[in-house]
Amino acid sequence: MASLVFVHGIGSRKTTDGSEHPYDVTFRAIGWELFRKKIEWTPVKCQWGDDLGAKLHAGGKSFPSYDGKLAVPAEPDDPIGVWRVLLEDPTFELRALATMTQTGAKGGAPAAAGASGPAVAGPPGGAFAGPPGGAAGGPPGGAIPASVALKARLDGGLTPAGPLQVLLKDSGLEACFAEAVAKVRTAPETPGAISHPQAFRALARAIVAETVRRGMDRGIPPPGGAVLQVMADRTEELLQTGQLFGIPDWAKKALAGWLTNKGARERAALLDAATPLAGDVIVYQAHGHIIRERIREAVSGAAGPVAILAHSLGGIAAAEALVEDAALRNRVRKLITAGSQSGFFYEIDALRTLPYGTDLPPDFPNWLSFWDPRDFLSFKIDGVFTGGRKRRDVRINSELPFPASHSGYWRQSSMWEEVRDFLKEA
Q1: Under a CB-based contact definition with an 8 Å cutoff, are residues 362 and 330 in contact?
Q2: Cis bond before residue 305 (omega within 30° of 0)
Q3: Secondary structure letter of residue 44 according to DSSP
Q4: Burial group, residue 352, by CB count within 10 angstroms (0-12, 13-18, 19+)
Q5: What CATH code is assigned to 2-54+295-424?
Q6: What Rg do the C-alpha atoms of the chain give, in angstroms?
Q7: What is the pLDDT along the chain (426 residues), one digit of tens a residue?
């Protein structure tokens, strides 16, 4: 049986809450995709982050205190600008609606022309004129107010069915969805937003964004942007209670153009976040040979023939291990990288084993490299390296904002079709 050795990238660490290791979750997802695409190569583990990756040996004493705030503009012409904001801050849209509802209730904005009630105030600077109808307006005829019915549905929990249930199951996000519903239901922003005519839509997006964030924290690869939108639409259907009065989706025009205040970012937060990310790159530059040795050990213990599948920094380590070790090149038939920086490191002359201008060894294996235009940590290899055998770049369009796009490769069907064909080549 052929073996596909999976080398992870930066930031892969065991969890602190006792949940499954993110590497194991991703590894299982890769195995499932191999099965679905009938790629008869057995995945083999090559894990290095926990014991060889960056860690703060002094507990973060090098970090000065920091009380600054960061405001990041979303690009209004970006079709996924809303998801860029929400994957960073799932309840941002709910807070916006709560603010508009509160301001509208105080009479802070004049009524829109032809509206049946006071217009709701928009974000600072008049970026949004507010939907027609009062914030607390409900359906005519004395029926139960839509906000009351919506709250009852949310409080009762949401049971996915049909396409939504299938998508959550295929993405490994079923448990995360249930947790996200509970989180959004109890969020402090929800009571203030729920009477707004757009609340059902904002709640659906918040639930999906929180679901994906929780999944990513556990190493579950995020689904593509198109799937995110389908999940939001299907969640919206679970929440709709007659609250949609023909209002356009204001968020796609207004929310994506706002400056989103990401809140106070104390440097203490970097102890669990930025340190494994940037730190792994620095540690690799200083001690990369020990990570490359881990790759050699994994390959030597795998049943042949062997190919390597490597993500991000793992792709750099795999490429350099193959450059410096003729025996490893003789053992490894193919190299596949995703979201990797090998081409960039080579171009800036930062590869220790291959100075810029030096050819890859003649027997360097065929190399397939995936990149995503929204993954700012992915770079191309073809036309950059010289020597070796065949190299090919393949563009993947996950439609995910960064940084979700950096781990979004594993759920892309087009990628696995390319992998299947590549591994079949002589």
Answers
A1: no
A2: yes
A3: E
A4: middle
A5: 3.40.50.1820
A6: 25
A7: 799 999 999 888 888 888 889 999 999 999 999 999 999 999 999 999 989 988 877 776 776 654 443 333 444 445 566 787 788 889 888 887 887 666 554 433 333 322 223 333 333 333 333 333 333 344 445 566 777 888 888 888 899 989 999 999 988 999 999 999 999 999 998 998 888 877 888 899 999 999 999 998 888 889 888 899 899 999 988 887 544 444 445 455 444 444 333 333 333 343 444 455 567 888 888 889 999 999 999 999 999 899 999 999 999 999 999 999 999 999 999 999 999 999 999 999 999 999 999 999 999 999 999 999 989 889 999 999 999 999 999 999 998 888 889 989 999 999 999 999 999 987
Find tokens 């679905």 and name the residue.
Answer: 36
Domain assignments of the chain as residue spans, ordered by start: 2-54+295-424, 69-264
β-sheet bridge partners, residue 278: none
Residue 128 backbone phi and psi in degrees, to 5 = -140, 130
CA nearest to 186, candidates 155, 231, 217: 155
Q: What is the DSSP letter of 187?
A: -
CB 230 within 8 A of CB 167: yes
Q: Which two tokens stand for residue 124?
A: 């600072």
Q: Residue holding tokens 């706002």?
A: 258
